[in-house]
Automatic annotation (TrEMBL):
Residues 12-158 form the Calcineurin-like phosphoesterase domain. This is Metallophosphoesterase. It holds the Pfam family Metallophos_2. It comes from Pyrobaculum aerophilum. InterPro entries: Calcineurin-like_PHP_lpxH, Metallo-depent_PP-like, Pesterase_MJ0037-like.
Length: 254
């Protein structure tokens, strides 16, 4: 499972992104690929991480569900997923661009809270999906932004040339001032550097986008990463188990 723990004084918050419950519907409907439901596999993965870390709550950073525009075939799968996780620990959902009708689907499920789309600030950590502009006052207070949306992955090759793509976590150090100017057309009260952590997709069938391609895709798309400085020496790449792969500059020409 692909998540990180946010340890606070009295809480341990498990952060996940892009569970994309119901992704199998698109595979079947659009690509003609018949795949068994992955919902129970997702549930098992989240529960295992909660137990492993002793997490007191779970926050999903957007794209909880996948099916668009209206979740006809997968709505019940989403409800099953939310009920199972919320039965274990409190669950906070930050809506992403795939989360149409999420409020209606989650309505009445005990232990589930839906946060604002622009994200939430917990201590010095700003948590959001990454497809919309966060609140300026939250960005000013945050030391670290944690987001999803982009599905980063890294291609690993051995000495024989065999390659495999693995989900990855990115840690980017960037200028807060440049982001504020681009997003709000005015400076933030705080300057200095800002850390941006990008989580991989949690759905087991979604590997992700090669990190070497993300800067160009970010520049063309609707994402917070569009405003981040893509200095290859300031982008750290980790596997989901926190194995350090290297800097973007180390792999950019591989």
């Amino acid at each position: 499972m692909r998540g990180i723990l946010l340890p606070l004084r009295r809480e341990k918050i498990l952060l996940l992104a892009d569970t994309h419950v119901g992704y199998e519907v698109e595979l079947r409907r659009v690509k003609g690929i018949n795949v068994m439901s992955q919902t129970q596999r997702l549930i098992n993965g989240v529960v295992e991480l909660v137990d492993y870390y002793g997490a007191t709550s779970v926050v999903i950073l957007g794209d909880v569900k996948h099916e668009l525009p209206v979740p006809r075939e997968s709505a019940e799968e989403v409800r099953i997923f939310l009920k199972a996780v919320a039965k274990k620990v409190p669950l906070i959902l930050i809506p992403g661009n795939h989360d149409s009708l999420l409020h209606e689907i989650a309505n009445g499920i005990e232990g589930v809270e839906i946060a604002p789309t622009r994200g939430i600030l917990i201590k010095k950590f700003l948590l959001f999906h990454g497809h919309v502009k966060p609140a300026k006052e939250d960005l000013e207070k945050a030391d670290t932004v944690v987001m999803g949306h982009t599905h980063p992955a890294v291609v690993l090759r051995d000495e024989l040339g065999y390659a495999v793509k693995e989900p990855a976590i990115l840690k980017i150090t960037t200028s807060r001032a440049k982001i504020c100017k681009a997003l709000y057309d005015e400076p933030c009260k705080r300057r200095g550097r800002l850390k941006v952590v990008v989580l991989p997709a949690s759905h087991p069938l979604i590997t992700g986008v090669d990190v070497r391609e993300i800067p160009q895709l970010a520049a063309e798309g609707r994402t917070f990463l569009k405003y981040v400085e893509w200095n290859p020496d300031n982008v750290e790449i980790y596997l989901p188990d926190f194995t350090f792969v290297g800097l973007l500059s180390d792999i950019i020409n591989i």
